[in-house]
């Protein structure tokens, strides 16, 4: 009881001092706007303001092959890479986004290292977040599942066994360029893999390069999201995105 009285006395004293200096609690209240209402999804459904990119075959209308034309991947309840048919990209372009995507490497293990369950998510066609079967599969650190490919490996390996559905929840901040096309601010990625933080507001070094060091090259403010055909039968489902 005595401690409670002391706390109340300190609160009263703090309010008294604020009043002496001409300050009130209301002085720091922001009433300029109300946050938009977004209804969270239930039972693994997307939130009310999300753009659903793939939840079944009907959503192929959102995608084309990288060079144009209809998608050649297998499409039904989920979307599966058909090797050597090419990458696919969204028709709509995006900048800053929150992305939810679920993926599954093949149950039957074929190959090893980078040739096992390999695919990738390319933000703005340029910045790759690695998809790989990294369950008991050795490769270079910045090539593991959850890597910003050839730049930063994941903080931990949160991979599940082959054949199990895995989840990526990503916050991507697009780079900004000045009027003279020089870099103004870099891109950032935060990634939660199967509920575990593996990229923590990581600053990207530039566009993804397989050979050589990454560097930024000017591009538009918004560009499509792309999924990679790396000749492995990786499947995707429940893909939705929120523009930020």
Summarize the model shown:
This protein is mostly beta strands.
Structure commentary:
- By secondary structure, this protein is mainly beta.
- The protein has a single domain, classed as Exo-inulinase, domain 1 (Jelly Rolls), CATH 2.60.120.
- It is 8% helix and 32% strand.
- It is built from 1 helix and 15 strands; from the N terminus they run αβββββββββββββββ.
- A hairpin with a 5-residue loop joins strand 10 and strand 11.
- It is elongated.
- The model has no long low-confidence stretch (mean pLDDT 94).
Number of domains: 1
Strand count, sense and barrel status of the largest sheet are: 8 strands, antiparallel
What series of H and E elements makes up the topology?
HEEEEEEEEEEEEEEE
What is the count of β-strands? 15
- How much helical structure, as a percent, in the residues? under 10%
The end-to-end span amounts to: 48 Å
Q: Structural class, from secondary structure content?
A: mainly beta
Parts with pLDDT < 50 across at least 5 consecutive residues: none
Q: Counting H and I runs of at least 4 residues, what is the number of helices? A: 1
What is the 3D shape?
elongated
CATH superfamily: Exo-inulinase, domain 1
The CATH class, by name, is Mainly Beta
Average pLDDT level: 94
Strand coverage percent: 25-35%
CATH topology: Jelly Rolls
Radius of gyration using CA atoms only: 23 Å
Corresponding CATH architecture: Sandwich
């Amino acid at each position: 009881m005595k401690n409670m009285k002391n706390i109340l006395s300190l609160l009263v004293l703090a309010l008294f001092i604020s009043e002496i200096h001409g300050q009130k609690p209301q002085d720091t209240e922001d009433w300029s706007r109300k946050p938009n209402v977004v209804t969270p999804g239930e039972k693994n459904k997307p939130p009310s303001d999300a753009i659903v990119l793939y939840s079944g075959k009907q959503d192929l209308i959102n995608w084309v092959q990288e060079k144009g034309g209809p998608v050649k991947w297998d499409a039904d309840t989920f979307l599966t890479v058909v090797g050597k048919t090419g990458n696919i990209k969204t028709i709509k372009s995006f900048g800053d986004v929150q992305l939810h995507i679920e993926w599954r490497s093949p149950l039957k293990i074929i190959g090893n290292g980078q040739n096992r369950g390999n695919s990738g998510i390319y933000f703005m066609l340029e910045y790759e977040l690695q998809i790989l079967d990294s369950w008991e599969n050795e490769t270079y650190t910045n090539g593991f599942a959850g890597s910003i490919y050839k730049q930063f490996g994941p903080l931990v390996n949160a991979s599940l066994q082959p054949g199990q559905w895995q989840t990526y929840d990503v916050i991507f901040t697009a780079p900004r360029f000045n009027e003279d096309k020089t870099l103004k601010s870099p891109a950032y990625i935060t990634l939660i893999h199967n509920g575990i933080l593996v990229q923590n507001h990581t600053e990207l070094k530039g566009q993804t390069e397989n050979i050589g060091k990454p560097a930024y090259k000017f591009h538009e403010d918004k560009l499509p999201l792309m999924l990679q055909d790396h000749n492995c039968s990786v499947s995707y489902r429940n893909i939705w995105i929120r523009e930020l």
